[in-house]
Amino acid sequence: KSVEFAQESRKKIAKKLISYAVPISFGSVVSALAGLIDVVTVVSGLTAYGLAAGMSQEASLLMANEKYGILSGKVDILLAVPLSINVAFSVALVPFISSAIARHRKDEAVSKIKYSLKISSLIALPCAVGFLVLATPIFKMLFPNAPEGAYLLQIQSFLVFFSVISQTITGALQGVGKLAVPGIALLVGAVIKYILNVIFIPIFGEAVPAVTSIIYSATACIISAIVLYRTLKEKMPLKEVIIKPLIASGIMGGVVFGAYKLLELVGIGNTISTILSIGVGVVIYFICVILLRVLDREEIQQLPYGNKICKMLKI
User: According to a count of CB atoms within 10 Å of the terminal CB, is the N or C end of the chain lower?
Assistant: First the structure.
């Protein structure tokens, strides 16, 4: 009722809420559908693969359930860790970008998106590289009685980057009002995943769903990124968001692999070797990020304890 903020009718507010909720919910529905695709296609496809290899019906079904259990019960759980860490950035983007766009401050929105993508990349890439080089030790440490399937984690380690970046881009798209795009992009990826699963799992076996999951996530990520940056009429800062964090992650991965092999050679147990190698990797990665100047002073200050970090690094 005030002069500054006109009162809207309940009907108009309800329509707005529905127009926002439906496309956002659609993306969640498609994500659940992608998981259902594996339920429907993996076991049946691997059973056919086993039969083609000369296994009996019972043995083929047992093998199919075992491989699907590794994918859903081991690999997916580990891959969910970086996603859960990154979720705060994607959620925080929506109100900030919406506010900046409403105030016609596109530069603020672009700067915040760039920063969030950079942080997401700094989370995702070292996790992906870590899973790639330490998949077997991690499986031995977490699943000592059933360490099989580490190679599936190595394959799907590439999924981490696309999933995390896609999560952040989804928040950015929702902030600029492109609510339906993430869901549509996921749907395109899900259709491709389903077709590839049906065709190739009976031929090539358990590696196929791991690869198609990457294709599904990469498809959604690329489509969403193209729409976002065309909407903003900006170029994606590949050097800052991908190349520098990738170099830092690559160096870290080499050091971690070497550290684990050295500790293993000395005779230290797998669990301690894995934990120590991860610790060494964290330190090396932090040093690489600083030396490559992936984050400037202002960006570091936005991190938890950012001012203390700047004082410690004297920047």
Answer: N
Measuring CA to CA, which residue among 308, 201, 295 is closest to residue 241?
A: 295
Assess contact for 32 and 192: CB atoms under 8 A.
Answer: no
Global pTM?
A: 0.88
Running DSSP on this structure, what letter comes out for residue 206?
A: T
How many angstroms separate the CA atoms of 272 and 92, rounded?
A: 37
For residues 97 and 104, give the distance between their C-alpha atoms in angstroms, rounded to a whole number.
10
Name the token pair of 131. Answer: 């899973």
Among 129, 131, 133, 123, which residue's Cα sits nearest to residue 153?
131
**Mean pLDDT for the stretch of residues 188-193:** 94
CA dist list (Å): 54 to 61, 93, 138, 206 = 13, 53, 33, 16
3 or 18, higher pLDDT: 18
Tokens in use for 288?
Answer: 């690489």
Nearest Cα neighbor of 49 from 35, 64, 29 is 64
How far out from the chain centre does Cα 306 lie?
24
In what helix (H) or strand (E) does residue 120 lie, and over which residues does it extend? helix 106-142
Mean pLDDT to the nearest integer, 105-121: 88
CA 190 to CA 109: how far, in whole Å? Answer: 30
Contact predicate 276/263, CB 8 Å: yes
Predicted confidence (pLDDT) per residue in 245-273, tens digit: 999 999 999 999 999 999 999 988 999 99
Closest CA to 127 of 101, 92, 164: 164
Helices (H) then strands (E): counts for the chain: 12, 0
